[in-house]
Protein backbone atom coordinates (compact mmCIF):
# COMPACT_ATOMS: atom_id res chain seq x y z
CA UNK A 1 0.00 0.00 0.00
CA UNK A 2 1.27 3.45 -0.90
CA UNK A 3 2.21 5.76 1.97
CA UNK A 4 1.18 8.77 -0.07
CA UNK A 5 1.18 10.74 -3.28
CA UNK A 6 4.38 12.51 -4.25
CA UNK A 7 3.91 15.61 -6.38
CA UNK A 8 7.04 16.20 -8.45
CA UNK A 9 8.28 16.20 -12.02
CA UNK A 10 9.98 13.14 -13.46
CA UNK A 11 13.40 14.80 -13.49
CA UNK A 12 13.35 17.05 -10.42
CA UNK A 13 16.42 16.20 -8.32
CA UNK A 14 14.60 16.71 -5.04
CA UNK A 15 11.84 14.32 -6.11
CA UNK A 16 14.42 11.77 -7.23
CA UNK A 17 16.04 11.93 -3.80
CA UNK A 18 12.72 11.19 -2.09
CA UNK A 19 11.99 8.31 -4.47
CA UNK A 20 15.48 6.91 -3.80
CA UNK A 21 14.83 6.95 -0.04
CA UNK A 22 11.52 5.17 -0.59
CA UNK A 23 13.11 2.55 -2.84
CA UNK A 24 16.04 1.97 -0.51
CA UNK A 25 13.68 1.59 2.46
CA UNK A 26 11.17 -0.60 0.61
CA UNK A 27 8.42 1.99 1.05
CA UNK A 28 5.77 2.22 -1.66
CA UNK A 29 5.22 5.79 -2.80
CA UNK A 30 2.83 6.87 -5.55
CA UNK A 31 4.08 9.55 -7.92
CA UNK A 32 1.36 11.79 -9.29
CA UNK A 33 1.27 11.37 -13.07
CA UNK A 34 1.18 14.44 -15.29
CA UNK A 35 2.56 16.88 -12.73
CA UNK A 36 3.73 20.02 -14.58
CA UNK A 37 5.94 22.65 -12.98
CA UNK A 38 4.29 26.08 -12.84
CA UNK A 39 0.99 24.56 -13.97
CA UNK A 40 -0.11 21.87 -11.50
CA UNK A 41 1.41 23.67 -8.50
CA UNK A 42 -0.39 26.92 -9.45
CA UNK A 43 -3.86 25.33 -9.60
CA UNK A 44 -6.47 26.17 -6.97
CA UNK A 45 -6.75 22.48 -6.01
CA UNK A 46 -2.99 22.20 -5.40
CA UNK A 47 -2.77 25.51 -3.53
CA UNK A 48 -5.60 24.38 -1.24
CA UNK A 49 -3.33 21.55 -0.10
CA UNK A 50 0.04 23.29 -0.40
CA UNK A 51 -0.53 27.07 -0.07
CA UNK A 52 2.98 28.10 -1.13
CA UNK A 53 2.75 26.04 -4.33
CA UNK A 54 6.06 24.36 -3.54
CA UNK A 55 7.08 20.94 -4.75
CA UNK A 56 8.03 18.23 -4.17
CA UNK A 57 5.06 17.76 -1.92
CA UNK A 58 3.58 14.73 -0.21
CA UNK A 59 -0.06 14.01 0.51
CA UNK A 60 -0.72 11.02 2.79
CA UNK A 61 -3.91 8.98 3.15
CA UNK A 62 -4.32 10.44 6.66
CA UNK A 63 -4.43 13.97 5.21
CA UNK A 64 -0.89 15.03 6.12
CA UNK A 65 0.51 17.55 3.64
CA UNK A 66 4.28 18.04 3.58
CA UNK A 67 6.65 20.09 1.49
CA UNK A 68 10.44 20.39 1.66
CA UNK A 69 12.64 17.57 0.43
CA UNK A 70 14.34 16.75 3.73
CA UNK A 71 11.08 16.66 5.70
CA UNK A 72 9.44 14.35 3.16
CA UNK A 73 12.50 12.10 2.87
CA UNK A 74 12.77 11.86 6.67
CA UNK A 75 9.08 10.97 6.95
CA UNK A 76 9.37 8.27 4.26
CA UNK A 77 12.60 6.89 5.80
CA UNK A 78 10.85 6.67 9.16
CA UNK A 79 8.23 4.38 7.64
CA UNK A 80 10.82 1.89 6.41
CA UNK A 81 10.89 -1.33 8.42
CA UNK A 82 14.23 -2.41 9.86
CA UNK A 83 15.98 0.48 8.18
CA UNK A 84 18.88 2.43 9.56
CA UNK A 85 18.30 5.31 7.17
CA UNK A 86 17.72 7.64 10.11
CA UNK A 87 20.24 6.06 12.50
CA UNK A 88 19.47 4.12 15.65
CA UNK A 89 21.03 6.38 18.31
CA UNK A 90 20.93 10.15 18.81
CA UNK A 91 24.54 10.31 17.63
CA UNK A 92 23.77 8.40 14.42
CA UNK A 93 20.66 10.49 13.81
CA UNK A 94 22.77 13.65 14.12
CA UNK A 95 25.34 12.23 11.70
CA UNK A 96 22.60 11.40 9.18
CA UNK A 97 21.26 14.96 9.49
CA UNK A 98 24.80 16.30 9.09
CA UNK A 99 25.32 14.42 5.82
CA UNK A 100 21.88 15.33 4.48
CA UNK A 101 22.60 18.99 5.20
CA UNK A 102 26.08 18.63 3.72
CA UNK A 103 24.61 17.22 0.52
CA UNK A 104 22.17 20.12 0.23
CA UNK A 105 24.57 22.96 1.04
CA UNK A 106 27.91 21.67 -0.26
CA UNK A 107 26.92 19.52 -3.23
CA UNK A 108 23.43 20.12 -4.51
CA UNK A 109 23.22 23.93 -4.32
CA UNK A 110 26.65 24.73 -5.79
CA UNK A 111 26.42 21.82 -8.24
CA UNK A 112 23.10 23.08 -9.55
CA UNK A 113 24.56 26.55 -10.14
CA UNK A 114 27.67 25.17 -11.87
CA UNK A 115 25.51 22.90 -14.05
CA UNK A 116 23.38 25.91 -14.98
CA UNK A 117 26.47 27.95 -15.86
CA UNK A 118 27.96 25.18 -17.98
CA UNK A 119 24.72 24.27 -19.75
CA UNK A 120 23.88 27.86 -20.63
CA UNK A 121 20.68 27.90 -18.54
CA UNK A 122 22.32 30.55 -16.33
CA UNK A 123 24.46 33.30 -17.89
CA UNK A 124 28.07 32.20 -17.53
CA UNK A 125 30.03 33.97 -14.82
CA UNK A 126 33.69 32.99 -14.59
CA UNK A 127 34.10 34.31 -11.02
CA UNK A 128 31.17 32.26 -9.74
CA UNK A 129 32.31 29.17 -11.64
CA UNK A 130 35.86 29.48 -10.28
CA UNK A 131 34.49 29.79 -6.74
CA UNK A 132 31.91 26.99 -6.83
CA UNK A 133 33.61 24.31 -8.93
CA UNK A 134 36.58 23.77 -6.55
CA UNK A 135 34.15 23.86 -3.61
CA UNK A 136 32.08 21.08 -5.21
CA UNK A 137 35.25 19.04 -5.91
CA UNK A 138 36.44 19.51 -2.31
CA UNK A 139 33.06 18.37 -1.04
CA UNK A 140 33.02 15.30 -3.30
CA UNK A 141 36.42 14.32 -1.90
CA UNK A 142 34.74 13.75 1.49
CA UNK A 143 32.74 10.72 0.35
CA UNK A 144 35.49 8.09 0.25
CA UNK A 145 35.87 8.71 4.00
CA UNK A 146 32.21 8.08 4.88
CA UNK A 147 32.06 4.27 5.29
CA UNK A 148 34.88 3.79 7.85
CA UNK A 149 33.76 6.67 10.07
CA UNK A 150 30.01 6.25 9.59
CA UNK A 151 29.28 2.54 9.02
CA UNK A 152 25.52 2.99 9.63
CA UNK A 153 25.18 5.29 6.59
CA UNK A 154 24.28 3.02 3.66
CA UNK A 155 26.31 3.13 0.46
CA UNK A 156 24.14 3.59 -2.60
TrEMBL record:
GO biological process: translational elongation
Gene3D superfamilies: 1.20.1050.10, Glutaredoxin (3.40.30.10)
Domain GST N-terminal: 2-84
InterPro entries, sorted: EF-GSTs, Glutathione-S-Trfase_C_sf, Glutathione_S-Trfase_N, Thioredoxin-like_sf
Protein name listed in UniProt: GST N-terminal domain-containing protein
One CC-aspect GO term: cytoplasm
Pfam families per UniProt: GST_N
Amino acid sequence: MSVGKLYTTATQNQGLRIRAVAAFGGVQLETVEGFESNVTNKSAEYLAKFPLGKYPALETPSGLHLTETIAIARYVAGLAKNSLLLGSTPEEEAQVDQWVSFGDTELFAPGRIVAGLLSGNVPYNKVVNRYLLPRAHRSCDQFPRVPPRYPHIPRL
